[in-house]
Amino acid sequence: MTTQQQRRVGLASLGLLGLTFVAALIASNTLLRGMRIDLTENDLYTISAGTKELLETIDEPINLYFFFSDQETANVPFLRSYATRVRETLEEFARVAEGGLIVHVIDPVPFSEDEDRAAQFGLESISLGALGQSIYFGIAGTNSVGDEDTIAFLQPDKETFLEYDIAKLIYNLANLDKTVVGLLAGARMNAGFDPQTQQFTEPWVITTQTRQFFDVRELTPGAERIDDDIGVLWIVHPRGLDETTLYAIDQFILGGGRALIFVDPFAEVEMTTTDPAMMAAGSASDLGPLFRAWGIEYSPEVVVVDDRYALSVNAGFGLRPIRHLGLIGLDGLAMNSEDIVTAGLDSINIGTAGHFTLAEDSDVTLVPLLTSSTSAGTLPTIQFQFLSDPSALLNGFAPSGETYVLAARLEGPLTTAFPDGPPATVEESEDEATEPQDDSATTNHLTSTDSANIILVGDVDILSDRMWVQRQSFLGQQLVTAFANNADFVINSLDNLSGSAALIGIRARASFSRPFTRVDNLRRIAEAEFRQTEEQLQAELADTEQRLGELQTARTDGGSLFMSEEQQTEIERFLDQQVRIRQELRAVQRNLDLNIERLGAMLKIINIGLVPILLTVVALIFVAYRRRKLETTT
């Protein structure tokens, strides 16, 4: 084959390759439209099955307005990258909703109508930069009947719950009515009259705050059935419930109902009653028959104590506070950061709490929400009765080295505690009923119709005012100041359980940010060396000061203000040491910078140089192979 023929073949091949490329683009746009592949490590752009199920149930279009101050954040890269993540997530939501969700991206420029609109929605603005520009970064939503809901500000530190927060916003707009919470309380949580003090009592603050978010309906012990319109059953300190009420709870939960349950081995909140024995001993609560049927082990005979998280209590006027092992102040490390109920909470106070474990043959899953430290153990409940000196709990106490689950989410299939059918009292009431009832009202569930959604808490005192809030009277008004996140925990639990099963199933996602772990490790090593050298300098400084003091004391010239020759020599020696150590500190910092620069240069070489070189080598090998093949054929 001549050179001219080879050139014609090459040009024809390039033309054919170009036509093939154009045809592939057209075919991909036509045949592969809507298909996406998420190649991120943690599937950041793949929404969960629960969110898809929620979006597919939208009956009427919902408008979401994403307000982000694009111009004002030109010099805030971390916020802009997170804003891109939010916008892409919203676009993916809209794609899955197929017309049920309309997303509007708005830049509320200062002094514009868009800024006024953001403020009207109630979005929060923050000030950044030297000029104090107002930055908006939130989402507002509206439905077809004009209802509104917002995420006032999208906090970057809550990125792992971005999908849940947006899905919850959409769920609220698609479901207009407040969730009905059925409150079955064995403790006095509402306003009433205290015969002991002959005064009216205020409702617990947690009760008042809960009514702001939910339609709370009080249930009386002895109820034979939980109404169908109750979305969440809130059980607090269930003491002495008869089989009729236990059966009603059992059937409500097995029928797909959700529940938030507070039990306690020693409820100190009940020590304010008029019964002298109760005042000394407190009271215990349990759902023994139901817990055993569900595969949950809980004993009201023991209390969890924690030497690390023990709170201090007032021992009396003029006396030092005493650490009370049974009163526990949990911090963020004791809370499940991957569950929406406890994520972002900093402090929760509990008192004389019990703990939960799974039975050996249990089929359910217990997801811890609140746990003790490893410096914890258990003590018999009887030790807290008539306890006058909390320091006595420290005598002979030895931590077990284990952690105890103080609150947990219960998931999985459940079995009834009444396999033989309803109690006789329920059967009699059904026989005496004259009005016809639907089948769902009389069906005896032996197993749960769906996976359980229950949150168990081993403490009732967590709800009482004294554990988390302080009341103050100001100009005739009652002001409350929270010093712990107890109410946030309760509201989050009810809010999460009140959502759809799809919404409850949404868990924390991975973070968008990808930290440079190698660089972080280098920094930690350098900081350790820096700290060690700095500590050496401080130690030598202390030795020098001590040496100077000894020299001053040993002087025989009456303590003259002028330094002796020995003192001057000692100070000069220390100054030389100080210069040397500072040089070492600078060397440590320089080595850190050099290591980071070397790592950065290596990454640049790989990304900018090595990859193109490898591609070029592969292309040259392919061209040489083609040319050799053509020569052999001729």
Structure description:
Helix 14 runs antiparallel to helix 15 (565-633). The termini are close together. By secondary structure, this protein is α+β, with helices and mostly antiparallel strands. A hairpin with a 4-residue loop joins strand 3 (125-128) and strand 4. It has four domains: 1-35; 49-173, Glutaredoxin, CATH 3.40.30.10; 179-425 and 443-504, no CATH class; 519-554 and 564-633. A seven-stranded mixed β-sheet has the order 9-6-10-11-21-20-18, with helices on both faces. Strands 1, 2, 3, 4 and 5 form a five-stranded mixed β-sheet that branches. The chain is 40% helix and 19% strand.
Summary tags:
634 residues, alpha+beta, Glutaredoxin, 4 domains, 15 helices, extended
Computed structural class: alpha+beta
Shape: extended
Largest sheet: 7 strands, mixed
- What's the rounded overall pLDDT mean? 80
Uncertain segments are 272-280, 433-441, 508-513
Strand order of the largest sheet: 9-6-10-11-21-20-18
Strand content: 15-25%
**Residues in helix, %:** 25-40%
Number of helices: 15
